[in-house]
Specification:
It is a single chain. By secondary structure, this protein is mainly beta. It has a single domain, classed as monomeric porin ompg (Porin, Beta Barrel). A twelve-stranded antiparallel barrel has the order 1-2-3-5-6-7-8-9-10-11-12-13. It starts with a helix and ends with a strand.
Length: 253
């Protein structure tokens, strides 16, 4: 059974990879949650393949994502995100339930409208399609939209990023405000140490506690156009999953 699920998931992920590749082929430097103002440049492409395993009191969710970023202009990127989710949790009877499948696909546009003296400012509007099955817990069941304001300040060998964002919770129709701060330290030309802290409005109307997280990780540049990364995220309160492990790779063309 597990082998069948794994093979099915692997086939789906490969299919997503090839669709993304032939369609034209991000977040900030993964494993950071907070985005930066960097763009690819006209005609340049970036492909990210990332994974995250999150555990909350014994219930787990694993997300494998393919993100394709295409430089439309020197200051404008088009970003396509395709996530595949594995869920393992206990139901009300105490039995463990497993689900997996395509989640909600996102499409975003990042526009860096200011850059001077090491300071960059950008806007990142986007929307999410209801491609995941809401009944199986794989999606929100209706389209959504969001907007992020992004700031990056270069203070070599440090970079600092600030994100302020707004989105509409599609299930409970609640306004969600996001805030996060990240830092990068270039220990060498090939090695970076990263840290991230942030939170956002709880999507659950019955809770007034906002999820808060803390993340630490590393990014290693194998070569000029290939990065590998690893990070660990922990919840700072009960509204956030207990812990998450993140890993990924980024290729530029």
């Amino acid at each position: 059974m597990r082998r069948t699920v794994f093979v099915s998931a692997l086939r789906s992920i490969c299919a997503v990879f090839f669709v993304a590749w032939f369609a034209g082929g991000a977040l900030a430097a993964h494993p950071l949650i907070t985005d930066d103002t960097g763009t690819q440049g006209r005609g340049r492409l970036q492909l990210e393949i990332n994974g995250e395993y999150a555990n909350d009191n014994g219930n787990s969710e694993t997300t494998l994502g393919v993100t394709l970023l295409a430089g439309l202009r020197d200051t404008i990127d088009l970003v396509l995100g395709v996530p595949y989710v594995f869920i393992s949790e206990k139901d009300d009877a105490g039995d463990r339930v497993h689900e997996n499948g395509l989640s909600d696909i996102s499409l975003e546009l990042k526009w860096r409208f200011y850059e001077q003296g090491g300071l960059g400012l950008a806007l990142k509007p986007g929307f999410t399609l209801d491609t995941g099955d809401e009944g199986r817990g794989l999606g929100d069941g209706r389209p959504g939209y969001h907007l992020f304001f992004i700031t990056t300040k270069e203070l070599a060998p440090f970079n600092v990023h600030l994100n302020l964002g707004y989105s509409k919770n599609r299930r409970e129709r609640r306004d969600i405000w996001h805030y996060s701060l990240a830092g990068e330290f270039a220990a060498s030309e090939a090695f970076k140490i990263v840290a991230n802290i942030g939170g956002e409005t709880n999507a659950d109307r019955s809770s007034s506690v906002s999820p808060l997280f803390l993340l630490g990780g590393i990014i290693y540049s194998v070569r000029e156009n290939l990065d590998m990364d690893f990070g660990v995220k922990t919840g700072l309160n009960k509204a956030e999953p207990d812990y998450a492990v993140l890993a990924g790779m980024s290729m530029r063309f």
